[in-house]
Design goal:
128 residues, mainly alpha, 434 Repressor (Amino-terminal Domain), 2 domains, 8 helices, elongated
Length: 128
C-alpha cells in the first residue's frame, strides 16, 4: 500500500518528467503557485477534484498516482541515475532549434567515440 509520501513523490516525479512547471499546474487548479508547492509537499491536502485536474493536466489516469503497479513506479527508477536526470534537464531547457543541434552534436560525438573504441580494439588485436 502506498503512503502519502509515495503518492506525492509520484506526483512530483511525473510533473518533472513531463516538464510541467508548478506555475502551470497551479493555474490549472486555480490556485497560487505557493499553494500548489505546499500541496505537492504534503503541507496542504489535495482535494479529489484537484487530483482529477492534476491527472488531466498530466495526461494520466487518476489511478496512476494511487496504484501500486510497477508501471506507475517506473518513472522514479527510470531516471534515478543523476547523469540521466542532468542530461534530461539540460535537454528540456533548450528551445526547438537548440534541441536539434544538441541531438546532432551528441550523435556525432557518440559516433566518434565508437570509432575510437573500434580503432583501439583493433590496435590491441594487431599487437597481440
Amino acid at each position: 500500500m502506498l503512503n502519502t509520501k509515495d503518492i506525492l513523490g509520484r506526483l512530483k516525479n511525473l510533473r518533472e518528467e513531463k516538464a510541467i512547471r508548478q506555475e502551470s499546474i497551479a493555474r490549472r487548479l486555480g490556485i497560487a503557485r505557493t499553494t500548489y508547492v505546499r500541496k505537492e509537499r504534503g503541507a496542504i491536502p489535495i482535494t479529489t477534484d484537484e487530483w482529477l485536474k492534476l491527472a488531466c493536466a498530466m495526461k494520466e489516469e487518476p489511478s496512476y498516482f494511487f496504484s501500486a503497479s510497477s508501471a506507475a513506479m517506473g518513472l522514479k527508477k527510470k531516471y534515478s541515475n543523476g547523469r540521466e536526470k542532468l542530461l534530461l534537464k539540460l535537454y528540456r531547457s533548450l528551445d526547438g532549434a537548440e534541441k536539434d543541434e544538441f541531438i546532432c552534436t551528441l550523435s556525432l560525438a557518440l559516433k566518434d567515440a565508437r570509432k575510437k573504441t573500434v580503432r583501439q580494439t583493433l590496435g590491441r588485436l594487431i599487437k597481440t
